[in-house]
Amino acid sequence: MKKAIYPGSFDPVTEGHMDVIRRACGFFDKLYVAVMVNVDKHTLFTCEERVDMLRKVTAEFGNVEVVHHDGLLADFAESLGVETIVKGIRNMSDFDIEYQMALINSRLNRKLDTIFFPSKSEYLFLSSTAVRSVAGTGGDITGFVPEAIKQTVLDKIAGIRIREER
Q: Domain map of the chain by residue range?
């Protein structure tokens, strides 16, 4: 069985992430979509909320399992019996960062390899940061996030704005 892991913060999951998931599903018998906890990042959504959103939007895929982890990806991949990491890249900056991480991961776990999925042109501009920014200023995020979680994202940001106004 060919297995892979697609790690990320998914804060929130975007249509760009979904495109990588769809494409990777065609290459692997099992795809773990892993919500990773990065202590250096301040996230809008809790780990549990991100896992819930991903489970909602990946329910249609029979070979996807959403998981979470707060340690090293190389160790987590080994514990799952995974030898392939899937990463999406939008530009050369993404590639530089992800290539460095691929080298680190393969050094930590010699069995690991990384496959890069270049972004489709319609998602080149799209990031979780952009979604949070647009939604935070009242912009329309239709087409930026899966429709099934759009209201969840808007409600979370509205709740933060209300707290900040107090």
A: 3-124
Would you tell me which CATH number, out of the four given (3.30.420.380, 3.40.50.620, 3.40.50.12780, 3.40.30.10), belongs to the domain 3-124?
Answer: 3.40.50.620
pLDDT in tens, 134-158: 999 999 999 999 999 999 999 998 8
87-119 confidence digits (pLDDT tens): 999 999 999 999 999 999 999 999 999 999 999
Q: Give the C-alpha distances (Å, rounded to integers) separating 35 from 13, 69, 73, 139, 160.
A: 10, 6, 10, 26, 22
The residue annotated as part of the active site, out of 87, 119, 128, 150, is 128
- The one catalytic residue in 90, 106, 120, 127 is 90
